[in-house]
Amino acid sequence: MINLLPDHVANQIAAGEVVQRPAAAVKELMENAIDAQATDIKLIIKDSGKTLIQVIDNGSGMNEVDARMCFERHATSKISKAEDLFALRTKGFRGEALAAIAAIAQVELKTKTEESELGIQLTIEGSKFKGQEICTCANGTSFSIKNLFFNVPARRNFLKSDRAEYKYILDEFIRIALAHPVITFSLINNEKEQYRLPKETLRQRLVSLYGKKYNPRLVPVEENTDIVNISGFVCKPEFAKKSRGEQYFFVNDRFIKSSYLNHAVLNSMEGLLQGDLHPTYFLFLDIDPSKIDVNIHPTKTEIKFEDERSVYAILRSALKRSLGQYNIAPSLDFSLNPEFQVPITSKNRVLRTPNVQVDPTFNPFEQEREIGNSALSSGINNPIEHQQNYRKPTNSEKGKHWEALFEEIQDDMNTAIPEYQPSVETVEMEVDIGESRFSFQLQNKFILTQLKSGLLIIDQQRAHTRVLYEQYFKSLPNKRPLSQQLLFPQEIYLSPGDMELFKEILDDVESLGFDISMPAELCLMINGVPFETKAGEVDKIIEALLDSYKNESDAWKQDSHKYMAKNLALSNSVKTGQALNTEEMNQLIDELFACEMPFVSVHNKPTAIILEMSELFKRFQ
Predict the structure, then answer these.
(1) What does the pLDDT average to over 148-155?
(2) What is the value of pTM for the model shown?
């Protein structure tokens, strides 16, 4: 009942673990080129890798024997015994990738060593050897994968859209390009060059990949210890995002995912991040290969540390020190010069407790009242000048005055309470309009105004967000958005990955009121913006829309109008801390109560609360 599987079937099964999508094949081929000590690597893509994936490098190349052997399962030049797994400095080591790729695609290999005058060309289709011949080619290797999954149509049907698959390819390309800034990389997609990255420093590589806007955001991190060496950059906390996209850990130049190390980064920024925002970082850990195990995951994106607690503590301390050093977070200075410190007291000085006399029966309010009454009765225009003639009352007189004051307050309460009898069952929500209406801003955050039933307290940012959200949401289905043309069109440059994502939501963005053209490959020209949008905030709004789409792409596709309107309203709304005049406050109140859901924010939190008169009277009883 138990039979050995044929080699081509076993290779197809193994391919399911190694090559889940075109991006996985890109990763394997580019890592092989790096292991071959290439200094220039070119990636060519057609139809998101479904039609063609080609990697050309100037590495060491292979001779005829190695070219044939590399397609055999478990054939590798990286290790020869089990102990070598704990001394790895290369990317791959299992010898399964090329065999798995050849089992599900049409493969063409051209390779030549520096010592050889001619190269060798091999053709393989679905694990079947089709031909071998001598060819003329440059030093290095050219590996072409055509018609991926041509013999496994079921797996091809599970691939996502071309844009989604190309985004996965971009992710792998960026990870490898970040890990090796000393290597020249280029990416050509559908015969258009997307990237041309020369040999450069890590900071220059980050700017090349993500744009010039990243340069001032980067905070360098550097720490060398006997356990681990840490280098790289972390972005300033004010540029944290809602998505986790730009978070990179590299261990010995190999990209990894680690929630444990990510927690160390979050811990180092405790108190600096707002809400559910995530920091951006590009961190490199160099550690002794014998102290880690990289052979615990098929894609090698997870590793195990021998002493993970120490790595955690060192990473957290290094980040805290960098943030403090560049005045991002407060830090203690242990190198102060003691000569500049002023002593609190002299050496021989005797400290004495000061003698303070306090009159426990003194009442300043009673004194002011006596001064005021005396001034009024005597016709004095300036009571303060008359204070010198004031006689301090005796203790018996003070007691009588306090009792009289209490009786007056009690009389006022007894006469005031019966006059106001609010109905608990029905609370009138109508705002008093007219001369009696007032609006008051408290700490540039809340707006207070009078209701017939009490006091209305409004959160100005939540209220304005609700107003804008309903206005934007209603304009979307009609395809008649309210927009305004910019006097000076604004250019925004995006990375290739963000540009591919933006093309997916371009129609939704334009339906909000944006007038956008694309004069260059990675450039957006903003000609018009929705109403109440400031020209200086356009780049931040576009970035916020992209981050939201990255974080909630599935939910976005189900109800794109909702997410577009919400993100634009959040970007354009009045912020906490912004001062408003009386006219602006009254207008906001009127617009809020014209909404369909005035008391609920876009995040299902209250926009306003009512403090009823009955509650106020209870507080003063």
Answers:
(1) 85
(2) 0.67
